[in-house]
């Protein structure tokens, strides 16, 4: 089996000593200019490069950034959000020739252990931190380690961390504006995991807006799920079968919205005549269902690109910053209409 | 900003010389057992670890594997196939504590350059090679470099490479069995990129099976696309508007199948009464369309898991092997039925 070319290979091919090769390649005195040029030519021919080990020991940058995802690996394939995010991250990193070190971890503890390890072992220059929590141990750890990081989705990162974020509270107001203008007053938000910071912001925003508009807190409320189609369907069935059911449902992702539409169809509740549906993230799924789903459209790939660009800027010596992604835009389609007059 | 703990930090904290620390941590003589124990305790407290640089120089494994994807980054978010594959890869790698170095490259040349670089710089111990081509420069390069690799989707890898693959030819036979049993004799395969080896195997299989069954080669054929919904829709419109249109369409991915279903609806061609549709890869998309799409169901995450496990086995010293993934299974749903009697 072939090997990586070594100093020894270069020495043999160039007919010089290994220390001469070392002097030549490290730009140290001890060899003539002619010999240095010849050694460098041979090294080039053999495809030799200083390895990341040697470069790291010399204090150079590692040239890779990290991303840990603390979710069960099998849930990765469910939502299009994460793939879109990673595709945007890759667009920015590829342009910079920077690979992404990517690992799925069991939980936040395992994620933190990976940060410690990757940093101590010089595997990454910095990390992108996703899925901010309402109580999050990661910012303090990253700051203590001195590991450069950009948080994805945190509007108020702990200094000196950088962040890119989207205004989920404002997006929820847009959704309520749309539904209230149609006449809805009984609205259930089928929320994702409530310990995720962006879910918490949506829940808070719904509560504040409902109060501001004089809507009843028992009739405009959030119910938490784990983001899966199964829990989205179960929550839909539960609220639709209760007394005084909602006339509109707002889902925290596309998969739950589509599952909820199927539940409504199964219960014989026509959409949008008796029930309006809104999906938080638009995707191909939302556009192929019948009726097509009213959805919050945002540039998720662009969000990932922004995050990666910000991390590269930090690594280049830029100051910590908080950057806001483009505001999501509500695209009304066929799944929202005025509530039935009887209600 | 905090730093990674160094030998110097440990020496200062433990009140010993730097060489004593080096002796103690590298298991060399020169310090007493008591001092060695104390130094190790301090190193532990400070979170010190031998960095990957030092370990690599000592010839140890790097502890990461690589994956390069030579596709435009923005197309990543389109298909669920790749995300499912990566989720399976991550399941196996996470269990082994091995991170994945992941980069999107512009083309095969850029992919090959990354292999050279990652190997020379000791960034990876091995790579997973995806999207095998009909003419593929990568196996020869990897063999020449001596970079351990597992090819994903190649039934006949160049020795000594390992491979995991799925039997696309046999799957195409299953699809034709299903459609022929219903009575279809005019079938168009809306194929993906024909320079991908698995697409070529599907196209060959269709041609061979059509001949074996005495079907006309101008009425049972493949038309190539780039896998996008746009080209899938365009190809569908073209063949449906031609004289003697097909009574069945077979799509190489879910996105094109759903786009094709929308084109048929737009042309007023009812599915399945006048046109049957089959999607190669099942996904949530296939199950939420009306009618729900007959699809080839396979365990893509399991395929990714198998590939990663095989690479880990090779890195552990196992022999090169060719392993076949579970055979895809055709799940008939509402989009396939006998062709109309008039045809």
From TrEMBL, chains A, B:
SMART domains in the record: HTH_LACI
Ranges where the HTH lacI-type domain occurs: 5-59
Stored Pfam families: LacI, Peripla_BP_3
Region of interest called Disordered, as start-end residue ranges on this chain: 317-343
Source superkingdom: Bacteria
CDD domains found in the cross-reference section: HTH_LacI, PBP1_LacI_sugar_binding-like
Keyword annotations of the record: DNA-binding, Transcription, Transcription regulation
Cited InterPro entries: HTH_LacI (IPR000843), LacI/GalR-like_sensor (IPR046335), Lambda_DNA-bd_dom_sf (IPR010982), Peripla_BP_I (IPR028082)
Organism annotation: Streptomyces antimicrobicus
Organism classification: Bacteria, Bacillati, Actinomycetota, Actinomycetes, Kitasatosporales
The keyword Transport is annotated on this UniProt entry: no
Compositionally biased region (Basic and acidic residues): 323-334
Protein name: LacI family transcriptional regulator
């Amino acid at each position: 089996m072939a090997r990586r070319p070594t100093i020894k290979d270069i020495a043999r091919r160039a007919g010089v000593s290994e220390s001469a090769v070392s002097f030549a390649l490290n730009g140290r005195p001890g060899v003539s200019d002619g010999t240095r040029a010849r050694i460098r030519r041979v090294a080039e021919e053999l495809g030799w490069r200083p390895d990341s080990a040697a470069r790291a020991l010399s204090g150079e940058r590692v040239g890779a950034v990290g991303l840990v995802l603390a979710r069960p690996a099998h849930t990765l394939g469910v939502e299009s959000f994460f793939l879109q995010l990673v595709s945007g991250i890759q667009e920015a990193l590829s342009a910079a020739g920077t690979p992404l070190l990517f690992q799925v971890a069991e939980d936040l503890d395992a994620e933190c252990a990976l940060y410690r390890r990757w940093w101590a072992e010089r595997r990454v220059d910095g990390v992108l931190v996703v899925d901010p929590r309402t109580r999050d141990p990661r910012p303090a750890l990253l700051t203590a380690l001195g590991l450069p990081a950009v948080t994805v989705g945190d509007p108020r990162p702990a200094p000196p961390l950088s962040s890119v974020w989207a205004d989920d509270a404002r997006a929820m107001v847009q959704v309520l504006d749309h539904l209230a203008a149609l006449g809805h007053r009984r609205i259930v938000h089928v929320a994702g995991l409530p310990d995720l910071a962006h879910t918490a912001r949506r829940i808070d925003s719904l509560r504040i807006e409902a109060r501001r508009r004089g809507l009843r807190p028992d009739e405009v409320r959030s119910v938490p799920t784990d983001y899966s189609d199964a829990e989205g369907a179960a929550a839909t069935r539960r609220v639709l079968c209760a007394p005084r059911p909602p006339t509109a449902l707002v889902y925290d992702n596309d998969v739950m919205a589509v599952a909820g539409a199927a539940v409504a169809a199964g219960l014989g509740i026509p959409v949008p005549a008796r029930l309006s549906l809104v999906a938080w993230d638009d995707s191909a799924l939302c556009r192929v269902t019948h009726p097509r789903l009213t959805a919050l459209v945002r540039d998720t790939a662009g969000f990932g690109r922004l995050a990666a660009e910000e991390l590269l800027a930090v690594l280049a010596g830029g100051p910590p910053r908080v950057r806001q992604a483009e505001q999501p835009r509500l695209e009304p389609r066929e799944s929202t209409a005025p509530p039935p007059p009887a209600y």
